């Protein structure tokens, strides 16, 4: 299973500094939606240029103009771009078209979708590389939130998937057992007192579980 660090910081400089610390322990570097909104596509170019060997994920959360939005993110250096599962099928298909033309990939983010397993199968049929079973930061803040709903959706859907929603050292083993291709960790890394240590701990937890 791959580890994806989600960088929900607000400046390219802070993102570059975090990425430099954690890159040895992660496979995918994600530019979070707030970062892209704050700094623009240049943040994607800066991270790809600093880490050409890493998979760079632009969390565009595209809802419309799928082909256009995916294409500008790929042109800036992204290898993977996210589209929302609540978007129209034509938006997903347009983004997939842009990805195929550049030999890159679309990840469909199922945040807010009630029947995540059903929509996951639909968007994989449209050509998405994998889906993200995702509970956003606001959903995570609700009382009683845990990862189990996302993990069960992943098990039921039987498609390639990632899990994002407060993945931590306590839960990354469960994400792996559920069969995820990618565990996404944002706050568990960027809010840690020592982000490199936190990322290394996540990596070591996977080695031990393997
Ligand atoms: O996609 C995300 C969220 O919508 C804000 O952009 C996060 O990057 C994702 O949820 C992973 O972060 P954590 O939940 O803090 O692990």
TrEMBL record:
Transmembrane segments: none annotated. Pfam families: OMPdecase (PF00215). CDD domains: KGPDC_HPS. Residues 2-202 form the Orotidine 5'-phosphate decarboxylase domain. GO terms for biological process: 'de novo' pyrimidine nucleobase biosynthetic process; formaldehyde assimilation via ribulose monophosphate cycle; L-ascorbic acid catabolic process. InterPro entries: 3-hexulose-6-phosphate_synth, Aldolase_TIM, HPS/KGPDC, OMPdeCOase_dom, RibuloseP-bd_barrel. It comes from the Bacteria. One of its GO terms (molecular function) is orotidine-5'-phosphate decarboxylase activity. It catalyses: D-ribulose 5-phosphate + formaldehyde = D-arabino-hex-3-ulose 6-phosphate. The keyword Lyase applies. Keywords: Carbohydrate metabolism, Lyase. Pathway: One-carbon metabolism; formaldehyde assimilation via RuMP pathway; D-fructose 6-phosphate from D-ribulose 5-phosphate and formaldehyde: step 1/2. SMART domains: OMPdecase (SM00934). Its EC number is 4.1.2.43. Belongs to the HPS/KGPDC family. HPS subfamily. PANTHER family: 3-KETO-L-GULONATE-6-PHOSPHATE DECARBOXYLASE SGBH-RELATED. This is 3-hexulose-6-phosphate synthase.
